[in-house]
Amino acid sequence: MTTPLMPSPIPATAVLKVGTIAPDFTLPATPDQKISLAELRGEPVILAFYPADWSPVCGDELGLFNAALGEFRRLGAQLVAISVDSAWSHAAYASQRNLHFPLLADFEPKGEVAKAYGVYRMPEGVCERALFVIDREGRVRWSFVSPISVNPGVDGILDALEKLSTSSKQDTP
Q: Choosing from 22, 45, 46, 58, which is the catalytic residue?
């Protein structure tokens, strides 16, 4: 009896390294509105790549992020989530889940932004469950790729934002 091959996670070397300038992008946030990373520059940004709208683990993860928005904002950060689903799917999903942050559609060309960040799962055609904290100048300061079936929580994000907050206070004369 043979067992189906499970796709292996992407090699850690493929994921953007800390210190790298985060690739800019412009993606649909709604069917008629786009958001670019460049327009968020000047404050920390959390990029949360997730596999798909309507999946149970993604729902738990994004619900947790929604609950933590006050903490993210207290630390001066903006949160955007990215998957390969369409802007229409995102609009319905965000409405049903009462999400208060943008869901960006890396829909066409499919996964282009996820590929630029090294977090596209080619065999399945979805994003890894991956997190990036980008500083005010646009550099990756923290990243984490979780097993696709595991909600990574918010502790790593909060720790990274606290470190950014502390380092920027020390840089101020």
A: 58
**Strands (E) located in the chain:** 26-30, 33-36, 45-49, 78-83, 103-105, 120-121, 126-127, 129-134, 140-146
Q: What is the pLDDT of residue 14?
A: 83
Where residue 23 falls (left for φ over 0; alpha for ψ -120 to 50; beta otherwise) is: beta
Q: In degrees rounded to 5, what are phi and psi of residue 56?
A: -60, -45
Alpha carbons within 13 A on the beta-carbon side of 53 = 24
Phi-psi region of 121 (alpha: psi -120 to 50; beta: other; left: phi over 0): beta
- The ranges assigned to domains in the chain are 27-171
Q: Is the dihedral of CA 87, 90, 96, 97 positive or negative?
A: negative
User: What's the pLDDT at 165?
Assistant: 86
Asked if 58 is an active-site residue, the reply is yes
pLDDT of residue 167: 78
Pairing mode of beta strands 78-83, 103-105: parallel
DSSP, collapsed to helix, strand or coil, labels residue 97 as helix
Give the CATH fold of the 27-171 domain. Answer: Glutaredoxin (3.40.30)
Mean pLDDT by 10 residues, the chain (173 residues): 41 79 97 96 97 96 98 97 97 97 97 97 94 97 96 97 82 53
State yes or no: cis peptide before 109, omega within 30 of 0. Answer: yes
Note the pTM of the prediction, 2 decimals: 0.90
